[in-house]
Amino acid sequence: MKLRWVVFLFVLLAGCSSKQDYRNPPWNAEVPVKRAMQWMPISEKAGAAWGVSPRLVTAIIAVESGGNPELVSKSNAVGLMQLKASTAGREVYRYMGWKGQPSTSELKNPERNISMGTAYLSILEHGVLAGIKDPQVMQYALVVSYVNGAGALLRTFSSDRKAAIEEINDLDADEFFEHVVKNHPAPQAPRYIWKVQQAMDAM
Are 157 and 144 in contact (CB under 8 A)? Predict the structure, then answer.
């Protein structure tokens, strides 16, 4: 009986700690950032076109693909910024007034991939996340929304978009991050913010 209680307590504590243990396994940003930096001329061009920080774009490339334009994930995310044709790709196409969605070969093209990934960040920032005032909070919100969708993030605050944005504006960057750690349904969400920040610090 006593052993069963100890095992239960261990499992309970392990569950609590793993939810917040976003730094494990360790991740060294140095090599992926170095590889991602080779695409900086394209990131700068796309960043200027869409009003997005090229450093943020480069950090996302480092985290998503390690700078490999040929990478295709198990979930069919493609290229440098690991875009899914049916979600982010379709969203960018619709925004541009185009029909359908990008092909895999289009998403493997570094210039097209970075352009579409940067466009998607801009669409998020000026669309569903519009109204977030603190630039650092906006960056965190963008990063989480990029990887897990803006809806999943906003619902951790309120089912009403406007009310969610107001609640977000009551938080500083550290408080927002803690909220994500404690409340986001996807355990990789805080780790993703952390990795992107690690990548930006390594530039």
Answer: no
Burial-class residue 135 by CB neighbours within 10 Å (0-12, 13-18, 19+): exposed
> Is the CA virtual torsion 171, 173, 176, 181 positive or negative?
negative
Beta carbons of 148 and 189 less than 8 angstroms apart: yes
Tens of pLDDT, residues 89-124: 999 999 999 999 999 999 999 999 999 999 999 999
> What one-letter code names the amino acid at 111?
E
Residue ranges of domains in the chain, CATH in brackets: 27-121 (1.10.530.10), 127-202 (1.10.530.10)
Assess whether pLDDT exceeds 90 at residue 3. Answer: no
Distance of alpha carbon 191 from its chain centroid, rounded? Answer: 10
* Cα distance between residue 29 and residue 175, in whole Å: 24
The number of beta carbons lying within 10 Å of the beta carbon of residue 30 is 11
Helix (H, G, I), strand (E, B) or coil at 83: strand
> What value, to the nearest 5°, has the Cα angle with vertex 128 and ends 165 and 111?
135
pTM of the predicted model as reported, rounded to 2 decimal places: 0.88
State what percent of residues in the chain have pLDDT above 70: 90
Q: How far is CA 51 from CA 43, 56, 71, 105, 112, in A?
A: 11, 11, 26, 26, 17
